[in-house]
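User: For my dataset I need records formatted as: sequence, then structure tokens, nothing else. Please produce one.
Assistant:
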Amino acid sequence: MPDLLPSWRDTPTKTSIVEFIGAVADPDADTFVPEIDRVAVFDNDGTLSTENPYAQVAFALDRAAQLGKPTTPDELKAGGVPAVLELVKLTHGSITTDDFNTAVRTWITTARHPRFGRSYASMVYQPMIELLGLLDANGFASWIFSGGGADFMRVWAPDVFGVPPHRVISSTGSVTFQMGDAGPELLKGTDLTFLDDGAQKPISIHQTVGQRPILAAGNTDGDLPMLQWTAGGPHRTLQLVVQHTDADREYAYDKDPLLGSSTDKLLAAASDHNWTVIDMAADWSTVYPPEP
């Protein structure tokens, strides 16, 4: 049989993933899970794609410069979450959703990562793309629950990850309806109305999916509630923790490089409950997909 996870090395991590999918998809197994209950949920930044820097923050910095109000990464790091939120207000608000989509679509294909020189649409993890494909082939519905912006992610994530836009659940801001010169339009406001992180993630899963997942993947403490919620379900489950250990091919760090989100609680839970930790350096033979 062909290897459907060719970018994963033959380690216990890959074995645990393959065995789990086989166990829940085999109708003759005691661990069989009906297809309607095969739900998988993924964080994005640091789990499906590189978060150093966050693609959305890089977009916002470039857009702020275009608007004549440049901001530096060092200023953001010093200002923390409040500074990031102010930057998002400046660069994501007071624009129609159609115009914002166009701006994101142009940027995501033309901007280049400062270290790797790749488009941000290609700064995603090939092993995780393969995993999403394997899950789809085995009757799973995969969802993305991200602290990033929904309007930003839905422009490019569906094509890259093969996940439809309605399964990309992320942070949102205020939106109003109005009649413009060309007809009806939606105008993005400057207020954050929903931050999809931490304890909000399992709440979002409940409100949008309506059932517990049987697979969850994350990389920081902000993803811990999502993995805990998944682990408490009635079926066999799999919790995946992505650990950034590859300084050469990606990055090696224990905390979110911009906002400082820790991994201590997540890794402690993984150890306590025997969750599967993905060691990038050891478990992945390839990190990024080839650019088109």
